[in-house]
């Protein structure tokens, strides 16, 4: 059944008109932000001119890069029997001081396991979710995608894949020990 032309025009106008409760965004824009934040129709877009200076100021991304470089250099990382990163890798990443942990810095916690440094733990998980790292038989290796991005120094594409994984696949509440609140991550693009 086809809608009358005037009704169709009214619906189109309503769905594309700014709404105060949406901070001036239209219902269509809100739909894209919540359900497909990276579509061409979304108000949130990646810039194609993000330079290395800007990428260097994103600590969690920098940890991911350094983590991938360690795997690239060593060809693989053998995990502990419990499936965690070995302490040697944790110390190497932490010593870069990309995102110091206040509990480690104050001496409350020691860097003995991944769980002691949430930024390294999060970077590891985000790298796996982004498709940069593969886990096989207790060893971590780089995927072809990560190898190609590192070899060509395509940091912008690496950042885009990391960001998509971090916002869309990684559970932000994983480490905070609070009850799950889905709408915080669900509507991240609206916050942006």
Q: How much of the sequence is in beta strands? A: 5-15%
Report strand order across the widest sheet.
1-3-2
- Helix-strand pattern, N to C? HHHHEHHHEEHHHH
Outline type: elongated
Radius of gyration: 21 Å
Query: What's the mean pLDDT score?
Result: 86
What low-confidence regions span 5 or more consecutive residues with pLDDT below 50? Answer: none
Q: What structural class is derived from the secondary structure elements?
A: mainly alpha
- How many strands appear in the DSSP assignment? 3
How far apart are the termini?
39 Å
Largest sheet: 3 strands, antiparallel
* Total of DSSP H or I helical runs spanning 4+ residues: 11
Keywords:
mainly alpha, 192 residues, elongated, 3 strands, three-stranded antiparallel β-sheet, 50% helix
Nutshell version of this structure?
This protein is mostly helical and 192 residues long.
Description:
This protein is mainly alpha-helical. Helices cover 50% and strands 5% of the residues. The protein contains eleven helices and three strands. The protein has helices at residues 5-15, 27-35, 52-55, 59-74, 87-94, 102-106, 118-129, 144-151, 155-168, 182-186, 188-191; strands at 77-78, 133-136, 139-142. A three-stranded antiparallel beta sheet has the order 1-3-2. Helix 4 crosses helix 7 (118-129). The longest helix has 16 residues, at 59-74. The chain is elongated and about 70 Å long. The chain starts with a helix and ends with a helix.
Write the layout of secondary structure elements.
Blueprint: H1 5-15, H2 27-35, H3 52-55, H4 59-74, E1 77-78, H5 87-94, H6 102-106, H7 118-129, E2 133-136, E3 139-142, H8 144-151, H9 155-168, H10 182-186, H11 188-191
Antiparallel strand pairs: 1-3, 2-3
Helix pairs in contact: 4-7
């Amino acid at each position: 059944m086809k809608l009358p032309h005037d009704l169709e025009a009214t619906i189109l106008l309503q769905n594309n008109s700014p709404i105060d409760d949406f901070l001036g965004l239209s219902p269509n824009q809100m739909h894209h932000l919540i359900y497909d934040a990276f579509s061409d129709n979304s108000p949130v877009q990646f810039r194609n001119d993000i330079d290395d200076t800007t990428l260097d100021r994103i600590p969690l991304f920098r940890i991911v890069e350094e983590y991938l470089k360690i795997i690239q250099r060593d060809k693989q990382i053998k995990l502990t029997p419990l499936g965690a990163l070995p302490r040697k890798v944790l110390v190497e990443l932490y010593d870069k001081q990309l995102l110091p942990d206040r509990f480690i810095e104050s001496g409350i916690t020691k860097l003995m396991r991944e769980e002691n440094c949430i930024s390294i733990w999060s970077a590891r998980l985000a790298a796996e979710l982004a498709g940069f790292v593969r886990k096989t038989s207790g060893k971590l290796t780089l995927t072809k995608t990560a190898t190609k991005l590192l070899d060509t120094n395509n940091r912008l594409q690496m950042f885009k894949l990391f960001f998509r994984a971090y916002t869309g696949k990684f559970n932000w509440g994983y480490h905070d020990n609070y009850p799950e609140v889905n709408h915080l991550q669900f509507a991240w693009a609206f916050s942006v």
